[in-house]
Design a protein that fits this description.
The protein is built from three helices and four strands, in the order αβββαβα. The protein is α+β, with helices and mostly antiparallel strands. It has a single domain, classed as Nucleotidyltransferase, domain 5 (2-Layer Sandwich), CATH 3.30.420.
Length: 119
């Protein structure tokens, strides 16, 4: 029986998240979600179950509403790095979810690294 694209995505997301849980040494998790129109990222503290910082193309202050391209992902990565630094976070695990690590997701991770966040 063939799996649907959605089933494969969920399997991939759970596989990535379970691997991160095994090697988590008290670090925060940088979780990415990409839709067809927007991209968002959250810095999550799994111990307390809280979101420490977040950034999205849906935020009006960034001027990226409705943009889902590599330039927007780069700007979001830079913004989350600045917000993480403001919250006192310097290290995090990158949780790509079920998304492949290329294109927009890779651009976001590289921009966060350049912004000073150790991934």
């Amino acid at each position: 029986m063939a799996n649907s694209k959605r089933d494969l995505f969920i399997k991939r997301r759970l596989r990535v998240r379970n691997k991160l849980r095994k090697v988590n040494a008290g670090r925060m998790r940088l979780s990415v979600h990409r839709s067809s129109k927007n991209i968002s990222v959250q810095l999550i503290d799994d111990v307390n179950g809280t979101t420490v910082a977040s950034a999205s193309t849906l935020e009006k202050g960034l001027g990226l509403v409705g943009k889902n391209n590599v330039e927007a992902a780069t700007k979001i990565g830079t913004e989350i790095a600045a917000r993480a630094k403001k919250a006192g976070v310097t290290e995090a695990y990158f949780d790509r979810g079920g998304f492949l690590f290329h294109g927009k997701v890779k651009a976001l991770a590289d921009a966060a690294r350049e912004g000073g966040l150790k991934i």
